[in-house]
Structures are given as C-alpha cells and as structure tokens.
User: What shape does this take?
Amino acid sequence: MPEGYLPIFIFLVCAILFPLVLLVIFQFLRPRLPLPVKLEAYECGIQAASNSRGRYTVRFYIIAILFVVFDVETIFLFPWAVRYKQLGWFGIGEVAVFLAILVVGYLWAYKKGALEWV
Assistant: This one.
C-alpha cells in the first residue's frame, strides 16, 4: 500500500524543493544595491506627481466585488452547457431559474446604485 504513495511523495518533494532552490539561486544573482531610479514608481517616464497610496472610494470596491461575484456565478453555466442535451427540459428550467436569480441580483444592484461609477 505505501508504494502507491511514492509518486505523490516524489511530486511533493519536487514541488517544495523547486521554488526553494530557485529562491536561493536568484538570491545570489540579483543586484545587491539597486539604483534609486530603479526604486521609483514608473509612470510612463514621467516623474511621479504625488504619493501613490491615495484613497479609493468604497464604490470602486463594491463594483469590483459585484463583478467577481457575478462573474463566478456565470462559471456555473459551463457544466450545464456541456450536459444540456442529457438534462433535457429539466436542465433548461434549472438554467432559467439560475439566470432569473442572476438578473434579479443585477437589477437589485442597479436600483441600489452600486453600478453607478460617479
């Protein structure tokens, strides 16, 4: 039984050693004292006008989170698209309910003003 785990153990050792070995190798290859110009923020060759650690409005984060949530939910359409012939009308009904819930979520977010940028 333990001999069946040997490939997994070898893979685990390689997965741990590979990044560690690369980190050690590049520790010696990297520049020791980078120039101050290399440490500046790059803005198309133009000197930075202000501190880049400014504050963003909460609305930006809400729109980003809504995008991720609705984008991840649409990933659930892929398994249905693969098996839609075998699911028949039941599968079409399931997807219709799923998309209806998704549209209701979009409408709710629109009514709350979460999708307005300004």
Residues 77-112 form the longest helix (36 residues). The chain has a mean pLDDT of 82. DSSP finds four helices and no strands in the chain. The radius of gyration is 25 Å.
